[in-house]
Amino acid sequence: MQQPRSGRRRPRALAALAVLVVFASLLCVPGQAAAKPPPVNPTDNQISTAQQRKIDTANEVGRLSAQTAQMQTMLDRLKADQQLAEQKLALALSRLAAAKTAATQALQNVTAAKQAAEKAQRDFVGYLQASYTSGDVGGTTGTLLTADDPNVLLESGALHDYQASHQVSAIGNLERATVARSNADASARNAVALQAALTHAADVAKDRAIAALESGKRQKAQLESALAAKRTLLHQRQLELATYNHQRAQFVAYQQEQARVAAAKAAEQERLRQEAIAAAAARDAANAAANGNGGGSGGGGGSYVPPGPTGNWTPAAGQRAADRALQWLGTPYSFAAGNSSGPTYGVCTNDAGFNDCHVFGFDCSGLVMYAWAQFPFAHFAATQYQQGSVHPDVSSLMPGDLVFWSGDATVNGIGHVAIYVGGGNVVQAPQSGDIVRITPLDQVESGYYGATRPLT
What we know:
- By secondary structure, this protein is of the alpha+beta class.
- The chain folds into two domains: 11-35 and 304-452, endopeptidase domain like (from Nostoc punctiforme) (endopeptidase fold (from Nostoc punctiforme), Alpha-Beta Complex), CATH 3.90.1720; 49-238, Orthogonal Bundle (Helix Hairpins), CATH 1.10.287.
- Helices cover 64% and strands 7% of the residues.
- Strands 6-5-4-3-7 form a five-stranded antiparallel beta sheet.
- The chain is rod-shaped, with a radius of gyration of 63 Å.
- The protein starts with a helix and ends with a strand.
- The model is unreliable at 1-35 and 293-309 (pLDDT under 50).
């Protein structure tokens, strides 16, 4: 009875193979597209550091701007000081010129007075000479010349009056002129010296004001240069931060698109899986009706084992599959990654797999695809359970057998697959952030569902 059943399974397996070839080809395309490098994603530290650098530079610009404004105020004051110093110097120069003019005039006045006194004296002497020689004896002079005894006349008041009115006056004028000249000389010299000192002080003050103004201008130029440099740096910091923010926005958009693609892929996988399950159920029902019994493929819990291998499976083929998977020990896990050719980039998700589109590796069903590359497995653990008609129990497992875990104890709930390598161990790609590793079968996770021997 076993041989006819085995003979009827082969056409059914071939039909399922054709469906799964199409299924696998549809599911592999998105996985290959996901290998495209993602946009640059700046770290949070890069963004926060750029933000702080921009703030610090903006503060520096503000500080230098305030210092520049203060310097301009100081320059305005220094300019006013310079102008005032120049005005004081002009006044001092004017007063010095006036003092020099007054001194010159005083000297001229003294000289004129002296000349007048000297002229008066000369006039007196000339008068006397003229009196002796002209014979004019009128008045006091005549009396003097015609007197019998001149000594008597000399003692007279007339001569005394003449001398008092002429000679003494001339001599007094001369003496006064001499004193006035001396006083005027001293006064003029003092006035000129004082104004010269004041002029020198005003000139020094003007030079100091000009020097202070020039120094302030140089300081302002330095501040303006530093301010211009800081403004250029601030523009660079702003551009840096804007670049990081733009890159982050692009990366977030990329993640959202990857999530959308992953959701669409999962929906398509589910649709194809349901179709495959329905087709298999229909074939099983047809075969059961043809055989007149309820026999099937034995996939209800993993305990049914047909008597001996069927299809293209051999122990050597199973061992080769196990060995191929073991070649990739230590390779990173990456969601939706890996195919019959080897590891690929995965797909980013909104959970632990947020970075998997940057990770080159395998997920659990992708590792199975590579291990059993001679057979076109779908990139879906639940469908891979259907890739063999023999479902050995744990005690009958052989290297290369696929073992499955289900969240609800049904085929539809299968969410993880591993490859048995012997000795009670499996090789698996566990989860995001992990690597391909060897794990004892009973330590993989809860919810063990059963096993499949491929190509049977």
